[in-house]
Amino acid sequence: MEYARWAPRYEAIRAEFGFPFDREEAAARELERLLPEPARDDPMGRLRACLRDRTVIVAGLAPSAGPPPVWRLAAEHPAPAIVAADGATADCLRSGLIPNVVATDLDGPVASEVTANRKGSLVVIHAHGDNLGALTDWVPEFPGALVGSWAGPPRGPLIDVGGFTDGDRAAYLAEAAGARRILLWGFDFLRVEEADPTSRQRKLAKLAWADRLLAELDRVGGSPLFLWQRDGSLDAYPGGRSVASTR
Length: 247
Prior knowledge:
Layout: H1 3-17, H2 21-34, H3 43-51, E1 55-59, E2 81-85, H4 88-94, E3 101-104, H5 110-118, E4 122-127, H6 132-138, E5 146-150, E6 158-159, H7 166-176, E7 181-185, H8 197-220, E8 225-228, E9 234-236
Parallel strand pairs: 1-2, 1-7, 2-3, 3-4, 4-5, 5-6, 7-8
Antiparallel strand pairs: 8-9
Helix pairs in contact: 7-8
């Protein structure tokens, strides 16, 4: 999504959750400082090389989701690509799947993301106001290909194609990279594992935004979105414009 279209959505998100923009900028500066030189070169071009004209499976971390059952998909050429949203990376690696791309803000099991990066995953690291310390600690640990993103206008090596949580941001990355279609696996906007009531309500509010943003991406983007169900069926995204297809 073009930044001019995305910016008002993020302004509404910042207003609802009280994210100070000066902290977003501080995190962006730190990520810019830490990114190695190869990560500064043509970030969108490198994402397109991974995802363009492919079925892209976005692997989420809904409770008990597990890794995406890629064996259920009919053979395609080129083969489907996997974009793992943060903690879903560990599930993928445990099942022998190496994501093509990992989208992370470094608040999950980051060691598994470093491992995936070492095995060939392109890791898109997102800077925001709450992860400056994690950026400092973890970015130097990644040995492979990186892309940087943040929540403001594209600047230097940092991109912003839209998206809020790791899951919906992964879908926005796939759409911006020219995916043929996007299959969402492990997405649940109603169940969360946080026991603390305040944390639980905040998480649900974030997931409500993710749901809303994915429906909009399906309506206005170039890559139709489908919810990949446990029985193997593909459902058109609710509120979007996808036409359901057979698997």
